[in-house]
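[Meeting: bench + compute handoff]

Bench side (C.D.) handed over the final construct sequence. Compute side (W.E.) agreed to return the predicted structure before the next meeting so the bench team could plan truncations. Sequence as handed over:
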Amino acid sequence: MHQLWYWVRKIESPRLSKPSGKALSLQWVRLPMEGPSSHDALTLKVGNVALEIRPGIDPALLADVMKVLKAL
């Protein structure tokens, strides 16, 4: 969110104007999101590795991956 507000302020800054001195007119467009959002994922960090775990993962596969990562 921090980066979003940075760009909103930068784009809406009064310094952004046409050479004629008139301010630019901006219009925001809503973009629909499809598929799973990043909020549906869990990030699991083991050492230097970060795993993104999404709903529906095979628990046995995750356990095997965790064993390998712990052994490294």
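W.E. noted at the follow-up: The two ends are 35 Å apart (CA to CA). C.D. will use this when planning the next construct.
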